[in-house]
């Protein structure tokens, strides 16, 4: 059986206490919430923190609170999000993203904070110690070469969070708490486009809370590409949020591509193109082309880069059409069985009624 | 027998006898075994693909507290291998490592952690050798030879057979179709990771509990590799948490823990990690193939020439058999007047390939069934009709001398065509929707054991006593397919009792008569026939005793519903228990045996031993797909499959096997692939498994699995127990080509390789949009220096199953002459 | 990477863990690094919980934590303090089988049996939450439990049979074949 390395274990009751322990232990400590990302990495000896500080006993991290918008504790599980009707209705991109993370079992323990901080992934790195030794390691850890781009001097591991693109599109901020103080930053500022150092979070900081603005008039959506209907990390994702006026003219827009580089990519140029216009087919096509141009994936996920690059345009198109109000159920269904999780109706093609093929 | 016309157990859907122990978590798999004072074993595996071992320093590991024993290649001087012709493995590598994952040392320690830490502190110095990764290049990479046996260089085995003059047939044919296909390798991915526990007793005997499909073969291999008499060894096959062929070989870890238990005097356990299971592999060979087929103007096949190149990985394993199987079964589905096949297996620095569900046959089946689709299109025929016109006839001897008994293929085709409304769909659905049809055939057990002998393939002992309880002893191994239930059903049917009253003791070389193992779909037919024989012998004893008691002739007695009675006077009968008491009183302690050996094959040529089987199963499938031209995504809406089972002993289990086969076939068609990463050679020699994990090796989740409509065609085969044929492997075969044909029907793109992925669809569509043919697949088949083929005239050309030229003999004579020349 | 010669941390001391296991108070000494899978199988001898990857990728080790399916291979045992864990061994009520256990045996929902414990517990949690779950919801709920034998179909049918039974409807004719 694959087993964990040894570590010291703390389970503080308050955020302050956790922050103090973290400050005390320094960078050899890791925070653990659901553990669904960290523990496999520890078993594969990709990470060997000397100390784990468990956040699960901190009640305030588990709260979903009202405010001007909504405040989500970082310790809220993804299942909590999926079960929350307000999120399902008002912050649909987040709800759709959370619904599609991994598997139901993992969503029951994985937390929002954990998903926002999920380690960047790469098929040259998410392997056992022995495997990585066989390729002489890589630049993300213990090695010099980025095998996904051997001539490059940086790590190209892929941002693999589903919730971050959705929350960035929704204009979320995150509150980071340290023993010495706290700060609140726009979520996009949490990320850096470097697979090895992908977060701007300081070692002594704890991601405590996600703050969603009041998005009463916004519509949002999240589209995920993966090989199967479950289990898999995204290999490309599109999150989009819009506010349109009564006449259908876009007043505000945010579009984010996920799982295409080492951080979520906020496409401001696409937003600028949309704002002030109605979502015509032509505009959507142009926006998709523009967004697609920024998709330059490397050959380091579980699906070929060719496919991921090709899929950016149709997925952006579908996301925008869905926000326009088009019925995109069929596209969702064809995209690795998404409808089952995205709509309330069971998939017609998967019912037992044989004579009703879709 | 007329009495059996109405079955009481056979054919009734019921819970298999071990069902509840599984749903209550009580089934004990190998890793569930814990013994007092048990030690734990970890293997240190090579991290280089091909190298000489210069030095192996275990001193740091040895010094660690808790380490009991370290074994290296020096401790295993004798090589072994599952096939007598490929004795090329060592439990631990001695001088050379041949792939990343090849084990070089074993640590036995108080716990798994200590063993693992110690293993990591063993220092090995390697001298790298040239990495052989590409099977086509391997044909000429003579310098970087993996083994010093085989044909030459890295060519493990080459075969060539000609059943009639195919070139002549093709020259005379109205059409000749030539296609090249590639079938990517994939692995079993049984959910249970291989585990083994060994314990020695004070007398120096040793017992191995293992997740193996073939305890008998493990028994023999342990004896050889450890130089121990077989009488000192007992192998117990635990219920397997899935096998699919992945646990049919003898594994190095089994030999290592057995040796370690003997050396330590304490039990030793190993459970592999998932990554290590990927390195055990023995899965589907990647096969490149070329098929040239002659077709008459009216769509009949005139002859076929098949060539295959198998990427064997680093060791022989079952590879020679796999190589034969890429050619052996083509003629059992459709009538082929003449047939030639050439096959070649090469060694590369990857985990060894071997048998996976369908063993060697899914690859050429994939090619042939797509080619038939192309033929139908060219001839403007319906692909289902085309197949119906050429299905082989029952009671036939094929061009390569395989004796076919029953064949329900035509019925299978008709059923899926009707059920799927094929006529309304094929070439009629809108762009993006399509249906495809394909067929397949498989063995119900190989005609020969892997080692030549004249003994039974399967033995059953039956014990009955005055309690009325019946116990079946059989060497077969339940790998989840339900083989224990098969024994219970059959014995219960014959003795007229409830299957739940039959206990089974299986897979234990010390307690159970030999059964060769759970492979080649042999278990139902072979253990079933042995069980019938044993049960009938027991029934005869009981009938005799009861007849005397009731004063009626024994032949008239009926065994049913737990009673033995004269149907003319049912009220006068006795209970089964009373019948056993009568028999035990009359004859003493009761026990009967049964055994089964397959009929002698008709083939008389060398190599004709691969392919014969007592019965062949047949399947046909229609797959209904949607293909999104924008994303390349393939959505399988529904699979219709008909399987010629002969007779379904327990329809619940049969249907489970059919749907399970479809599931695995869809995985192979759409996403499963055991592929490797060759790092840029300028920077690294590394050759690593690309995705040795459950997450990255893609298999269908519950959301990806379409509905499967199953039709069972029951056409009892005289060689099968109550007419039953196999179901474990056959239903997988038509799935991959049916998907490929459905994709073509949907979007007009030919994907001549698996897996059929979205990016390949998009590439095909792009190509088509640019005016190309819209095909993704291999461009050509390499030139291989084939040996002179064995020429065997087909039965209808006056052949008698013998080769009219024996190239082997000729070659031996030449060699002999050369030797003499050199010597002089 | 710490190896034998490197600075392996001193094995952390074991601590007592008190939790509800299959309805009974359970006390066991564990180290912080022990996962619940290890504790169940190796300390408590409850080998009904299986493991197929230990990395959260297959679902074989699923148990119920406070009624919710979670992966015991990615759960530190210490996190179970004061909580309630249910394993396959706890599904029977005394000598009475849970309806899912009999349905899976009857209808082929189990073949090799290795994924079965995890599937059963996941299905049990589903039925408690959605007693009238549709085929689509069953698919969704079981999407984290890989099964290599059945192709899932007889698993779905087994769950549906229990749903019908709970709703007092007769068994689907031919549902067993």
Structure description:
The complex is a heterotrimer of chains A (358), B (824) and C (177). Chain A is an alpha+beta fold and 358 residues long. Chain A contains 14 helices and twelve strands. In chain A, the strands form three sheets. In chain A, strands 4-5-8-6-7 form a five-stranded antiparallel β-sheet. In chain A, strands 9-10-11-12 form a four-stranded antiparallel β-sheet, sandwiched between helices. In chain A, a hairpin with a 5-residue loop joins strand 10 and strand 11. The N and C termini of chain A lie far apart (44 Å). Chain B is an alpha+beta fold. Chain B folds into three domains: 178 residues, Aldehyde Oxidoreductase, domain 3, CATH 3.90.1170.50; 367 residues, Aldehyde oxidase/xanthine dehydrogenase, molybdopterin binding domain (Aldehyde Oxidoreductase, domain 4, 2-Layer Sandwich); 141 residues, Aldehyde Oxidoreductase, domain 4 (2-Layer Sandwich). Chain B contains 20 helices and 34 strands. In chain B, the strands form nine sheets. Chain B has a seven-stranded mixed β-sheet with strand order 3-5-1-12-9-10-11, with helices on both faces. In chain B, strand 13 and strand 14 form a beta hairpin. Chain B starts with 18 loop residues before the first helix and ends with a helix. Chain C has a five-stranded mixed β-sheet, sandwiched between helices. The N terminus of chain C is likely disordered. Classes of the chains: A alpha+beta (358), B alpha+beta (824), C alpha+beta (177). Chains in contact: A-B, A-C, B-C. The interface between B and C is large, with 65 and 64 residues.
SSE map:
The complex is a heterotrimer of chains A (358), B (824) and C (177).
Chain A lengths: L7 E3 L4 H11 L3 E4 L5 H6 L7 E4 L9 E3 L3 E4 L4 H6 L1 H6 L1 H8 L4 H6 L2 H5 L12 H6 L28 H7 L3 E6 L2 E6 L19 E7 L5 E8 L10 E9 L5 E9 L6 E2 L1 H7 L6 H13 L11 H20 L4 H6 L4 H4 L16
Chain B lengths: L18 H5 L15 E7 L5 E7 L1 H4 L4 E6 L23 E2 L5 E7 L2 H9 L2 E6 L6 H4 L16 E9 L2 H6 L3 E9 L11 E6 L5 E5 L4 H12 L6 E5 L14 H13 L3 E4 L2 H7 L6 E9 L5 E11 L7 H10 L10 E8 L15 H17 L4 H8 L5 E2 L5 E2 L4 H12 L1 H4 L7 E11 L14 E7 L5 E5 L8 H13 L6 E5 L16 H28 L7 E3 L2 E4 L2 E7 H12 L2 E7 L19 E12 L6 E11 L6 H20 L5 E3 L8 E3 L17 E7 L21 H13 L2 E2 L1 E2 L3 H12 L5 E2 L13 E2 L15 H17 L1
Parallel strand pairs in B: 1-12, 7-34, 8-32, 10-11, 14-15, 20-21, 27-30, 31-33
Antiparallel strand pairs in B: 1-5, 2-4, 2-6, 3-5, 7-15, 8-13, 9-10, 9-12, 13-14, 16-17, 18-26, 19-20, 19-25, 22-23, 23-24, 26-27, 28-29
Helix pairs in contact in B: 6-7, 10-18, 14-15, 15-16, 17-18
Chain C lengths: L14 E7 L2 E7 L5 H8 L18 E4 L2 E4 L12 E3 L12 H9 L8 H14 L5 H7 L11 H14 L11
Parallel strand pairs in C: 1-5
Antiparallel strand pairs in C: 1-2, 3-4, 3-5
